[in-house]
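Dear H.,

Thanks for agreeing to be a second pair of eyes. The structure we're designing against is below in token form, covering all 419 positions.
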């Protein structure tokens, strides 16, 4: 009986199943393979925010190897701690947009795999009952009261703005209402004729120009209120993967107030110390090549000789070009394997499937802690410099916050220009 046949048998008979042998990126490959075989969302709970983000990156890279139909999402912590540092936004508040979008996707049954950290799973969010109460579907041609709809947006946490440029904002111009719900990729423009929705369109937040016509749109809350948990959005008999079976990460022990809701959950625990009942995925770590390309090529030739399916992952296009150039330059291999772009942190070897998945980090020996900078909120780009004055603060999309000092007329390459 193969591994997943054994696992499915245990899931039907036991509440807690222990697994091991999930080295490196094999954890993501295991979860993707499992999510492909079940009909309801799989929840993966990691020790902290850094580990959950690393797993999410691995999942995004490796999903191309499998035929997973549903979406993969990250349910972030309301106040994440990364690399030992607690991060809040400049207003000392929390942006709930990603969390609310995840909850909406669960309700819409769009998700196959949800990744979160233990603290995020722990924290209160909006209850499912309130989420559904404050959500509203608007259809083209239906009647709505303009002022009541605006009141709904205000009660749901939407902030009025001159232009809608980011989720949780709305604006008014006569019979035109613009808003951006967290579950939508683009903001939406509703055009009213008296009390009837004449047209619904998405629009570009940068140009403010209308784009596609929509038949309907679902608006969700823009703030987290109420006494709810992520667990109440999941089916009663959900399957939960819990990483590393240590005392501090035993979810049931720490969430006593959730015991009623999680009592029917089925748990798969990735254990550090297996026993006779533990199922072994039997993945192996990739050898440490330490930047020695010739050593890597020797191993690669062995895998290819043994008829392994080999996939290489680079973090960006420049890295991909560099790796392909090295293969051409060294002339040490007859067949160049698949080289894809994807944020895989570390690879793995799965002998029983004759599969070798290698990241550029494995080859070149770069294992650094990724310090993620806060993302800038989407804003409207300047059309001309006349929109700002010397002394104004500006935000460059790559360089960050700066102070505009004004223009200088300079001679460059025998030509005068403003800089």
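And this is the sequence the design step returned. I haven't edited it by hand at all.
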């Amino acid at each position: 009986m193969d591994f997943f046949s054994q696992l499915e048998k245990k899931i039907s008979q036991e509440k807690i199943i222990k697994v091991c042998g999930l080295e490196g990126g094999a954890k993501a490959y295991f979860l993707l393979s499992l999510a492909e075989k079940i009909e309801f969302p799989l929840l993966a709970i990691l020790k902290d925010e850094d580990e959950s983000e690393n797993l999410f990156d691995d999942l995004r890279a490796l999903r191309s190897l499998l035929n997973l139909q549903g979406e993969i999402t990250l349910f972030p912590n309301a106040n994440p701690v990364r690399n030992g540092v607690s991060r809040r936004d400049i207003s000392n508040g929390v942006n709930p947009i990603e969390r609310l979008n995840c909850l909406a996707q669960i309700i819409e049954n769009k998700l196959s795999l949800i990744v979160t950290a233990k603290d995020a799973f722990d924290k209160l969010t909006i209850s499912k009952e309130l989420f559904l109460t404050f959500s509203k579907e608007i259809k083209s041609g239906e009647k709505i009261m303009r002022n009541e709809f605006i009141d709904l947006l205000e009660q749901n946490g939407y902030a009025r703005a001159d232009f809608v440029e980011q989720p949780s904002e709305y604006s008014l111009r006569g019979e035109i209402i613009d808003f951006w719900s967290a579950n939508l990729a683009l903001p939406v423009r509703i055009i009213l004729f008296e009390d009837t929705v004449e047209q619904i369109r998405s629009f570009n937040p940068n140009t403010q120009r209308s784009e596609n016509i929509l038949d309907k749109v679902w608006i969700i809350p823009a703030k987290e209120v109420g006494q709810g948990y992520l667990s109440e959005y999941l089916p009663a008999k959900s399957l939960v993967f819990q990483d590393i079976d240590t005392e501090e990460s035993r979810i049931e022990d720490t969430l006593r107030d959730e015991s009623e809701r999680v009592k029917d959950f089925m748990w798969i625990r990735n254990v550090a110390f297996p026993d006779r009942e533990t199922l072994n995925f039997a993945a192996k770590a990739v050898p440490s090549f330490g930047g020695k390309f010739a050593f890597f090529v020797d191993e690669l030739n062995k895998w290819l000789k043994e008829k392994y399916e080999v996939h290489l992952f680079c973090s960006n296009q420049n890295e991909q070009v560099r790796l392909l150039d090295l293969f051409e330059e060294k002339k040490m291999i007859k067949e160049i394997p698949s080289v894809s772009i994807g944020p895989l942190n570390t690879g793995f070897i799965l002998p029983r499937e004759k599969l070798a998945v290698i990241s550029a980090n494995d080859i070149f020996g770069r294992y650094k802690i990724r310090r993620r900078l806060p993302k800038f909120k989407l804003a409207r780009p300047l059309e001309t410099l006349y929109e700002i004055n010397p002394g104004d603060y500006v935000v460059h999309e790559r360089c960050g916050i700066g102070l505009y000092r004004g223009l200088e007329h300079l001679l460059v390459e025998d030509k005068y220009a403003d800089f």
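Two observations from my side: Residues 81-94 have pLDDT under 50 and may be disordered. The first strand starts at residue 16 and ends at 20.

Warmly,
E.
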